[in-house]
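Bug #77: duplicate submission created two jobs. Keeping one. Sequence:
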Amino acid sequence: MRDADLQRAFRVLGAASFVGLLFLVAGVAVVALAAEAVKTWTWYFRMEQAIAVATPLALGLLALSFVSGVGIVAVADSERRGRPRGG
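Kept job's structure:
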């Protein structure tokens, strides 16, 4: 795979994980807002369940975003090393 293709793959992976993280946090926020609006123990329990499910997923997406960022930097560094200085 060429460096440009690899860098594009890392960028898409990073963007997808970031967007997934945004949707995940927004989903938990909607459940939390609903729990605060209704103010019943059932909805507070649902909020706790949403947070319990979302936390490992958010950590996974965050790790994926970090790995893709490191990959982008590594590929960009290898591209830079392949070119002559000053050009």
